[in-house]
Design a protein that fits this description.
single chain; alpha/beta; seven-stranded mixed β-sheet; binds S-adenosylmethionine
């Protein structure tokens, strides 16, 4: 109820909704399934997938999980004090009809997921700022979804390449236009399917300069790729100019979980498969440094959930925390 109060308090133009119907309360209680709430307001995204084997994107439907992540970032702006990520466009990009969906998603069980989604963007933006201070002027957001960084880019001279599945990108551009957020001149859209298209060619054709260092982020994407596509994408970055780097998020495999955590993961995996965006690739944190070095990176840092909680959530009275199996890695060429 606190969340709803915050919502109505901060957005006086939006009406509070009556109590959630039972089915939606059940959805909220299912943790990660909170991602899916409110999709009915976005008919194109909520189109039924062709099958449960990753066919949503292949069928030309925008990513539903991109909308889910954007909703969690928007919610973070509204209900969490202090914010880990300041994103003044996070609510706006969703449009006015997101109000009731955001209220529904405000139920407590999605807090860990919300913390993780806010933290990973903040961490990527912090690492990007460091790269910019070292002279990097190209930022590539892989699997950008509804990420708004490019539209609030504070770094003069930084070009931002947003790479995403063509249908998701098309839909995002439609959303930007619909809510009146201008596409800045420094933003270049690069439609790519990581599973079937060559990223270096598509980047070069879009004006990316391979002779200059670049920073990349890939947030909430690895889990949806095949291992082959993940490795191929990381290998491309490892072959970029010296000074280049990437920050990406990854999740531990279900084999590391037990009890309630395992049951919750299994429910989430079934839900993601059912909407046509199955979780496919998990990484053991201990294996990440050697894997990235084998792909060509020279330095690798892993940010564990414990470290993330100390760095970004220390001293909070609301005990907002990232979940135990959610990691970040940063690697440099
Ligand atoms: C969970 S969303 C994350 C979006 C964004 N990074 C964020 O944090 O809000 C996953 C994103 O990966 C993209 N994606 C998944 N598989 C892809 C593929 N094979 N090629 C290109 N993009 C893909 C989706 O279109 C979607 O935008």
């Amino acid at each position: 109820m606190r969340a709803m109060h915050c919502w109505t308090g901060q957005r006086p133009g939006l009406r509070a909704e009556p109590a959630l119907p039972v089915r939606r309360r059940w959805l909220a209680a299912a943790g990660t399934l909170a991602l899916l709430q409110g999709f009915a307001s976005y008919p194109r995204v909520w189109a039924k997938p062709e099958s449960s084997t990753g066919a949503r994107l292949a069928a030309g439907t925008p990513s539903a999980t991109a909308l889910g992540a954007a909703m969690q970032r928007a919610l973070h702006q509204i209900v969490d004090v202090p914010r880990v990520l300041d994103d003044p466009l996070a609510v706006r990009i969703l449009g006015a009809d997101a109000a009731s969906a955001l209220q529904a998603a405000a139920d407590r069980p999605s807090r860990g997921l919300r913390a993780y989604i806010a933290m990973r963007s903040r961490h990527a933006e912090d690492r990007l700022a460091e790269a910019v201070s070292r002279g990097v002027r190209q930022y590539v957001v892989l699997g950008a979804g509804l990420d708004t960084f490019a539209c609030r880019n504070p770094h003069p001279g930084l070009r931002v390449f947003e790479v995403d599945y063509p249908a998701t990108q098309d839909w995002k551009r439609g959303r930007l236009a619909a809510v009146g957020i201008a596409e800045p001149p420094a933003l270049i859209f690069v439609p790519v399917d990581f599973e079937t298209q060559r990223l270096p060619d598509r980047l070069r054709e879009s004006g990316f300069d391979p002779a200059q260092p670049a920073f990349f982020s890939m947030l909430g994407v690895v889990i949806y790729l095949t291992e082959e596509a993940m490795d191929a994408t990381l290998r491309v970055i490892a072959s970029c100019a010296p000074g280049s780097g990437i920050t990406f998020s990854f999740t531990e495999p279900p084999s590391r979980l037990e009890g309630a955590a395992l049951a919750s993961r299994q429910r989430s995996m079934a839900a993601m498969a059912a909407i046509g965006e199955p979780w496919r690739t998990f990484l053991e944190p201990e294996s990440v440094p050697s894997r990235l070095r084998a792909l060509g990176f020279s330095a690798v840092e892993v940010l564990t959930p414990k470290q993330a909680n100390q760095r970004y959530f220390g001293g909070r009275v609301d005990r907002l925390r990232v979940p135990a199996s959610s990691h970040m890695a940063t690697a440099f060429v």
